[in-house]
Amino acid sequence: MLNGYRSAGESSARRGADRRSVDLRRRFGHPAPVNPAAPILLFDSGVGGLTVLAELRKLLPQAPVIYAADTAGLPYGEKTEAEIAARVAGLLGRLSERYSPRLITIACNTASTIALGMVREVLKVPVVGTVPAIKPAAAMTRTGAIGLLGTAATIRQGYVDRLEAEFGNGHRLIRHAAPGLVEAAEAMLRGEAVDPAVFEAAAQGLRSQPGGDSIDTVVLACTHFPLVEPQLAAALGPGVRFVDGAQGIARRIEFLTRGQPFAREAPDLALFTGGEDTFAALAPALKRYGLERTEPF
Predict the structure, then answer these.
(1) Span 95-99, mean pLDDT?
(2) How many Cβ atoms are within 10 Å of 47's Cβ, its own excluded?
(3) By the 8 A CB rule, do 143 and 258 touch?
(4) With CB atoms counted within 10 Å of each terminal CB, which end of the chain scores lower, N or C?
């Protein structure tokens, strides 16, 4: 899998927002003191953000982490923009107040494309978002046909239209909503079998559109989807490359926290808004990602 995506740097406006995030830590030219035990908070609708966490561990293994999954609100892709914006802003406000993170990452394309601006205006902490990796995909494609798999809410956003216009290099961007992949990724992490027809349907949703036969690069515009990349690769056939934002997001977090002290005073924590049965089934997988504790939120 190729990951050339810089999650927070695809436009001058986004770069400006990140610079303002850094400025929040500075007063009179000196960095504001940071509690070494203050966690990095990763937020997603479910387990997709674990793909970001895996890359973050490589760069900042010593950083304390809280992973928050809004499993009670899953799936986000079928909700309205107003519902998503209100839910994400409300939950992140409560999480920020309770856990005092040094930085928040919205490790969810749907939530980021809808609620990132609102969250940045409200919270006094740097916030890193996730948007579809169209720019690196445009640089990778040889045929000029790029597939984009995401949730229904993500692929219809005007933000995606603007990314395509600014960074698509005139290539054809073929979009397909594949909500079944979210459920498949969640099920696989719980150790459940998944019908291969789910992946075949996602592949057919791209291939059946005009120009779909020429797709050689696919943007995984949902953090859940890299968890099922091998299955998608088999369904789409040889010669297709995938791009997602996990590495770029991890690099952005490392940059924004560079020079800060880290001290893990307790095992890293996973929070779930859903019932106990939800995170009990995921506990073995969470431990593989270094999340030793699970609690309801």
Answers:
(1) 96
(2) 28
(3) no
(4) N
Catalytic-role residue among 108, 116, 123, 232 = 108
Q: Which of 222, 249, 269, 282 is catalytic?
A: 222
pTM of the model: 0.85
Residues in a beta bridge with 42: 67, 105
Interior angle at CA 252, CA 247 and CA 253, nearest 5 = 100
Indicate if 272 belongs to the active site: no
**Residue 272 — very low, low, confident or very high, per pLDDT cuts 50/70/90?**
very high
Tokens of 5: 């995506």
Between 228 and 31, whose confidence is greater?
Answer: 228
Q: What is the pLDDT of residue 21?
A: 46
Per the document, the length of the chain is 297
Q: Tokens 């073929």 sit at which residue?
A: 174
Q: Are the C-beta atoms of residues 206 and 172 closer than 8 Å to each other? A: no
- pLDDT (0 to 100) of residue 12: 43
- Give the residue range(s) of CATH 3.40.50.1860 domains in the chain: 12-130+247-296, 134-245
Class of domain 12-130+247-296: alpha beta
How much of the chain exceeds pLDDT 70, in percent? 89
Q: Is the peptide bond prior to 75 cis by the omega test (within 30 degrees of 0)?
A: yes
The tens digit of pLDDT for each residue in 247-257 reads 999 999 999 99
Q: Mention the CATH class of domain 134-245.
A: alpha beta
Residue 275 appears among annotated catalytic residues:
no
